[in-house]
Amino acid sequence: MTETTRRDEIAAGLARVEAEIAEACRAAGRDRKELTLIAVTKTYPASDVRLLAGLGVTDVGENRDQEASAKARECADLNLSWHFVGQLQTNKARSVVRYADVVHSVDRPRLAEALGREAAGAGRRVTCLVQIALDDDPDRGGVRPAGAAALAEAIAGTEGLVLGGVMAVAPLGADPGRAFAKLREIAQEVREAHPGADVISAGMSGDMSQAIANGATHLRVGTALLGRRKPFVR
Ligand SMILES: *Cc1c(COP(=O)(O)O)cnc(C)c1O
């Protein structure tokens, strides 16, 4: 496919996503400016990141370090914020802090420790979100709601890290609205202890509206912008 065609395709996806966001904001009585759209570019090439940037997208998300670090390097000339949204092993912390501005998937104290150590060592400050598990599926990551406050406290007290707020993925097969309402309650508790930690990262291609209705500040959208991903083998 030529770049022009791909640009048109992505522009159309972006227009559809923006229309859905606008409608959900209207329904919820919210301002579009309260929301950051993160284009999740995993499995798509750096050339797509470049096209997105050309269309005004400022934030991109990735979920695997190897792919993300290469893409961030290729796009170093673009003024983008990089979000790491995938499950993260502590031994990847050193690499991730070099390009990630925000890590959405901090779900255990040891990971916070590793990220803090590497960020401080690299002279970086990395914003971290507490990923909350809203179901019982350990494969999807996240700390239990009961552990959120303690993990937030640990991040806030770690040199090199800034506590940004919370993140969650809606459970499969459940009502995303109810899940995001729960997330909003947890976010509120975290914010009471840490007034600056006002990020609620929630909402993907299939549940943006429910996330917006429940106070999301950051949407992580892949498929609706870029098309269906090919399955890949890790
Ligand atoms: C892939 C991914 C997304 C984007 O999902 P889409 O359904 O393609 O919009 C959002 N959040 C996380 C954590 C992801 O891994």
UniProtKB/TrEMBL annotation:
CDD domains membership: PLPDE_III_YBL036c_like
Keyword S-adenosyl-L-methionine: no
Keyword DNA-binding: no
Entries under PROSITE patterns matching the protein: UPF0001
Cofactor: pyridoxal 5'-phosphate
Any one GO molecular-function label of the UniProt entry: pyridoxal phosphate binding
Stretches assigned to the Alanine racemase N-terminal domain: 34-228
Alphabetical UniProt keywords: Pyridoxal phosphate
Pfam families: Ala_racemase_N (PF01168)
Residue numbers carrying N6-(pyridoxal phosphate)lysine: 42
NCBIfam families per the UniProt record, alphabetical: YggS family pyridoxal phosphate-dependent enzyme
Function: Pyridoxal 5'-phosphate (PLP)-binding protein, which is involved in PLP homeostasis.
Family, as annotated: Belongs to the pyridoxal phosphate-binding protein YggS/PROSC family.
Name assigned to this protein: Pyridoxal phosphate homeostasis protein
Native source species: Streptosporangium becharense
